[in-house]
């Protein structure tokens, strides 16, 4: 089977992480993604945090695979003409410039729609249109603070904390990809393109919806029984930081295993799922707790949950995190070793599934990247290296009807 998005042409005006994560995924699934970059410099991530002098940084290569690169100065008259031709024959334009940059370039939504009524214009911004912060430029951690993640992450006695997961960037890109696919489906029916906008604040909040649930519960009853502050601590009128507590009805915590004194990741995440209480007791050798009224219900366990975790840590003392999980899985207990990035990079299962995959790059050689987390029965996703800056400029200009002489002149004038 050909790839599902084959035939969809995307002008990729994205940079850094939020936009590139979106277009990279669409490229994996078959879209022709043309990354438009400023001549001479390109996406800032090409040169950010470089590990090999003069070679595109991993930050860039891991977010721009399977794309083509066109250099173009869209602020010149010739650059605008090239972009106009591209718009006329493309399906989607994706951008995550600062607010108003596309308009200032002369490509407003109204103008793009005139050029190509079928065009889908997809944007990431920090805040949504009309928001009182709509003029702000935004990066990852700014969005995590604005979207409710930071105020609810970390420990009660520490400051608001951001997550290492790219909740503001890649997560927003994934939301945008869903929006683009929805608009493409709509265009199949109506023939019309549309504007698709996703804000980083909204995307973070979408993942923090259970915290808004908790705010309303707190407003009503004054406490949150699954948080470590309950029942011995105090609550204010805002959702507190819950440390490593399980987010739902399953109390959980990160517990020390053998070697934790020297290994920062010698821990497991352990979950006390209500109906798994008897297996948990059997697994940790505390059968007497199974029918003990002081322990046998979730409610009875609530006020001594940390002493229960302490007992489990005693049991974990002579087991590595992997040995512990190997025992607990036999009892059907939801748990996982806390894996370091080094362990993840070498994980045979992640390698076998293609979630961790080795890619070849023309200048860097081989490097690891995260492959498609979505698996299909009828599509094998192949991850290819990212393009060099302007690698496909000439072939794209040729396809737009430019002659070799014209292309040479455009290079000379630094338009491309
Ligand atoms: N040719 C000519 N000009 C170009 C160009 C090209 N190919 N590509 C970009 N530019 C210009 C833009 O038109 C803009 O010009 P003006 O401001 O003069 O109109 C200029 O480059 C700067 O663009 P920018 O505002 O996007 O870049 P920045 O580095 O100042 O800000 C960022 C970066 C990420 C903060 C901002 O783009 C932003 O807020 N984006 C939306 C939110 C977002 O996606 N953030 C996530 C980034 S991932 O962490």
Keywords:
416 residues, alpha/beta, Rossmann fold, formyl-coa transferase, domain 3, six-stranded parallel β-sheet, three-stranded antiparallel β-sheet, 11 strands, binds oxidized coenzyme A
Helix content: 25-40%
CATH architecture of the largest domain, by name, is 3-Layer(aba) Sandwich
Q: Which runs of at least 5 residues are low in confidence (pLDDT < 50)?
A: none
Strand order of the largest sheet: 3-2-1-4-5-6
* Portion in beta strands: 5-15%
User: What is the class of the largest domain in the CATH system?
Assistant: Alpha Beta
CATH topology of the largest domain: Rossmann fold
SSE series: EHEHEHEHHEHHEHHEEHHHHEHHEEHH
* Approximate shape: elongated
Class computed from helices, strands and strand pairing: alpha/beta
What can be said about the biggest beta sheet?
A: 6 strands, parallel
Span between termini = 36 Å
Would you report the number of β strands?
11
Please identify which CATH superfamily of the largest domain we are dealing with.
Crotonobetainyl-coa:carnitine coa-transferase, domain 1
Per DSSP, the total helix count is: 17
**Total domains, how many?**
2
Estimated radius of gyration: 26 Å
Mean pLDDT: 97
Cofactors, ions and other ligands in the entry: oxidized coenzyme A
């Amino acid at each position: 089977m050909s790839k599902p998005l084959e035939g969809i042409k995307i002008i990729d005006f994205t940079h850094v992480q939020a936009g590139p994560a979106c277009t990279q995924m669409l490229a994996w699934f078959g879209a022709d993604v043309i990354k438009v970059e400023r001549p001479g410099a390109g996406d800032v991530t090409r040169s950010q945090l470089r590990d090999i002098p003069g070679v595109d940084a991993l930050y860039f290569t891991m977010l721009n695979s399977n794309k083509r690169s066109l250099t173009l100065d869209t602020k010149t008259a010739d650059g605008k003409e090239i972009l106009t031709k591209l718009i006329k024959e493309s399906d989607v334009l994706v951008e995550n410039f600062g607010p108003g940059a596309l308009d200032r370039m002369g490509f407003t939504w109204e103008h793009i729609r005139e050029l190509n009524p079928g065009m889908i214009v997809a944007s990431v911004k920090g805040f949504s249109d009309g928001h009182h912060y709509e003029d702000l430029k935004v990066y990852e951690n700014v969005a995590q603070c604005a979207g409710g993640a930071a105020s609810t992450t970390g420990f009660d006695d520490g400051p608001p904390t951001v997550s290492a997961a790219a909740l503001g960037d890649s997560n927003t890109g994934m939301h945008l990809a869903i929006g683009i696919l929805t608009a493409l489906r709509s265009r199949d029916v109506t023939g019309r393109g549309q504007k698709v906008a996703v804000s980083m604040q909204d995307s973070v909040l979408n993942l923090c919806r259970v915290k808004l649930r908790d705010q309303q519960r707190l407003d009503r009853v004054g406490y949150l029984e699954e948080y470590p502050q309950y029942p011995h601590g105090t609550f204010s009128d805002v959702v507190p930081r819950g440390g490593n507590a399980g987010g739902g009805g399953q109390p959980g915590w990160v517990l020390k295993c053998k070697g934790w004194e020297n290994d920062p990741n010698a821990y497991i995440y352990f979950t006390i799922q209500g109906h798994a209480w008897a297996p948990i007791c059997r697994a940790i050798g505390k059968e007497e707790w199974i029918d003990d009224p002081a322990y046998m219900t979730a409610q009875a366990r609530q006020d001594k949950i940390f002493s229960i975790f302490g007992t489990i840590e005693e049991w974990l003392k002579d087991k590595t995190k992997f040995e512990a999980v190997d025992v607990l899985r036999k009892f059907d207990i939801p748990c996982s070793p806390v894996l370091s990035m080094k362990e993840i990079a070498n994980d045979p299962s992640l390698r076998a599934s293609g979630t961790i995959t080795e890619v070849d790059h023309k200048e860097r050689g081989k490097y690891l990247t995260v492959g498609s987390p979505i698996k299909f029965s009828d599509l094998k996703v192949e991850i290819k290296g990212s393009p060099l800056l302007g690698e496909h400029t000439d072939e794209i200009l040729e396809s737009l009807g430019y002659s070799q002489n014209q292309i040479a002149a455009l290079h000379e004038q630094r338009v491309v």
